[in-house]
């Protein structure tokens, strides 16, 4: 009777083993990072960690589980607020005219216990990680170059408006992606992504 050969480990499994990602949150983050980089073509990926604290009761401090985050640049915008879309339409600004936006991702697995407290902690720490990312990128990307002087002016006004909206919340508040790994079918699993926003997004009145 012929002996069966054990199949080779997947690229993701090899990466997790090679880097000694024995902690569950590190293994989950490694799989999501691999998916972002190789399937969705994100670039400039970086990782962050919110250490757990088993004795903490303050809802703005970390729960007992360690939380990992990943950030990077997707090839296209993931989400645009409806009012921002309207502004872009009125000012003849296309997505291709804009600089890419760094997006943050929280890796999770299906069935993992996740509460509003976890999300509150992430949003509470997010500005800190955004500043770290800016330092990594060498500061703001600035206004994307345009040959047309009129377009350059429109883009400059857009970025000024964008900066103002970050303070006023006019174009929405903080947002990130919740990555969920579904291993129900076996193997390394499928990763689904959900946009999560801080607070409520009111539908625009037409």
Q: What keywords describe this structure?
A:
alpha+beta; globular
Structure report:
The protein has a 5-stranded mixed sheet with strand order 1-2-3-4-5, sandwiched between helices. Helix 1 crosses helix 2 (24-38). The longest helix is centred in the middle third of the chain and has 22 residues, at 116-137. It is α+β, with helices and mostly antiparallel strands and 206 residues long. Strand 4 and strand 5 (190-197) form a beta hairpin. The chain has helices spanning 11-18, 24-38, 82-90, 116-137, 149-168, and strands at 43-50, 67-73, 103-109, 175-182, 190-197. It is globular, with a radius of gyration of 20 Å. The model has no long low-confidence stretch (mean pLDDT 80). Residues 31-128 form the tRNA-splicing endonuclease subunit Sen15 domain.
């Amino acid at each position: 009777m012929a002996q069966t050969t054990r199949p080779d480990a997947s690229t993701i499994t090899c990466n997790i083993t090679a880097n000694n990602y024995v902690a569950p949150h590190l293994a989950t983050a490694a799989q999501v990072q691999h998916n972002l980089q190789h399937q969705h073509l994100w670039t400039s990926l970086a990782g962050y960690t919110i250490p757990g604290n088993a004795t903490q009761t303050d809802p703005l401090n970390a729960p007992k589980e360690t939380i990992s985050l990943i950030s990077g640049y997707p090839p296209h915008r993931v989400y645009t607020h409806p009012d921002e879309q309207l502004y872009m339409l009125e000012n003849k600004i296309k997505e291709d005219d804009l600089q890419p936006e760094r997006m943050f991702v929280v890796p999770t697995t299906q069935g993992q216990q996740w509460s509003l407290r976890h999300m509150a902690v992430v949003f509470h720490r997010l500005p800190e990680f955004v500043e770290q990312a800016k330092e990594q990128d060498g500061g703001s990307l600035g206004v994307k170059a345009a040959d047309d002087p009129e377009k350059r002016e429109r883009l400059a006004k857009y970025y000024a408006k964008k900066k103002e909206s970050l303070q006023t919340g006019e174009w929405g508040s903080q947002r990130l992606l919740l990555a969920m790994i579904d291993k129900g079918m076996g193997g390394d699993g499928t990763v689904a992504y959900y946009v999560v926003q801080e607070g409520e997004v009111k539908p625009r009145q037409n």
